[in-house]
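Ticket #4471: structure export looks truncated?
Reporter: QA, pipeline team
Priority: medium

Steps to reproduce: submit the single chain below to the structure queue and open the exported record.
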Amino acid sequence: MYESEFVCDYSYHAQMEPLNSVASVSPAGDACEIWCGTQSQTMAVAAVAKALGIPVEKVKLNLTLLGGGFGRRGHRDEEFVVDSVLLSKEVKRPVKVLWTREDDVHNGRFRPLSVHFMRAGLDSSNRIVAWQHRVACDEVTAFQDPVRYKGGGEKDFLAMAGSELRTYDIPNRLAEQLPQETGIRTSSLRGIGFGPNKFATEAFLDEVAAKHGLDPVELRLQLLKNTPRGQAVIRAAVEMSDYRRKRPGRGLGFSFIDYAGTMVAAVAEVSIDKTRGKVNVHDFWLALDPGIAVQPDNVVAQTESSIVYGLGLALTERITIKDGAVAAVEHSRLRRAAHARHSRAARQADVHAEPSDGRGADGDAHRGTRHRERRLRGERCARAPHTFPARARARRDGLSAHGCTLRRRVAPGRERALASPTAVIVLLRHAPSAARARPKRGNCSLFGGRRVERLVGHLQKKQNRNLPPLVR
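Actual output as written to the record:
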C-alpha cells in the first residue's frame, strides 16, 4: 500500500487580451447592443438581460474574436460585460470597459487551490488493484455556473473531471471530493479538473513505480492492456524521446492522459540547478491520438499551446492570498507572469502526422482533409510521418515566412488531399533566447483595447448620423 499527497496552487488565467466590452443601452433602458468576445454567447446575452430586467430578445450581441479565454470568459455572470451595460444605462451613451491587468488579477477568478490524497494497493504480481483519489478544493461549478451545478445534481464536475481513471485497468477505484466553501472566486482553467487531477495521478504513479521498483512506462502499458490506442501513443513518445538513453545529470518525467477519448503521452527532460533550486526543462515530447481530426492544424496549435501553458503553471505561476485578498502584485511582475508561458515556449516544434489509409488505430473510418501550412512566430514547424502501419515515404517541402522556416512532409502525390491523421506528435526543443523573434503587432484581435477603440469610434460616427436610439 502506498500513500502520498500533492498540492496545486491558485492560478491566474493570464489570457493575452484583457477583459473588455462595449455596450449601448437604449435611452429607455429596454434594449441593448453589446460587442465582446465571450466563450458563451448564450450566457453573455442572458447576463445582460438579467442586469437590465429585459427579455433576451432585446439584447443584440456582436461577437468578436477573443485573445484567449481558457475559462476566464466562460462564467455565467459575465461580469466584465455587465459592467459596460450598467455604465451605458447610467450615462445613456455607448460605453467601453477595459479591465486593466491589475483589476483582473485582484478581482479575478482563479483555478482553485487543491490538495490531493492518493492511495494505491498492489497485489503479489505487482499489479495495482485498488486506487483512491480524494480531492479537497474550493468549489468551482457552484460559483462559475450555478445553473449547470443545480441541473447536474449539485456535483462539482468541473473540479473532479479527470479523477475517475476510466482508461487504466484498475478493478477497484474511488474518486471523492471534500468541497471547501472558502468564498474564493474560482474558475475552470484550461482542461477544467484534468490539469490538477492528472498531475496528482501521474506523479503518484511515478512514485509508486520508483518505490516498488517498477518501470514507469511498463507500468502504464500494463494498465492500458485493454486500450491499444493508449499503448500506441506511449510507444510513440518513448521512441521519439529515445527514452532508454542515459542522460547524465538529467531526468525524464512520463505521463499519460485520456481526455474524453483523446490519448496523450508525454516525456519531459529536466535538470535541477541545486544551487538555486531551479527546475530546467530542456526537451518535451508529446504523442497525441485525437481520433478523427476534422481540423488537424487546430489540433496541433492546441497541443503546442497546452504544453507551454502547462510549463507555466508547473514552474512559474501562482496566486497568493493574504488576509483574504490577492497579495499586492507590481505591474512589472504582472507582465512577467502574463508572458511567462511565452518566454518558456520552445522555439522549435516538430509536428508528426501520418497520412492514414482511412482507418485509425481503433478501426474508425477517417475522412480526407487538406492540411494547411501555419506560420508560427519565432518557431520552426515540421510535419513528418508517425509510426502507424501504413508508413509512406515522405518528402520535404520548404518555404520561409516572417523569418520562420516551415517544413512539411507528406506522401508523394497527396499534397492537396491528406487523410486525416490518426495521431499527432509534437516535439518541442528549446533554443537560445537570442534566437527568439518578437511577435509583430498586426492582428488587432490580440489587442483588445485597439479593437474596442475602433468600435467606439464607429459608434460615435453612427451617433452623428442620427441613427435609431439603440446606438445613440
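Status: closed, not a bug. The export was complete when the record was re-opened. Leaving a note from the reviewer for reference: The longest strand covers residues 262-273.
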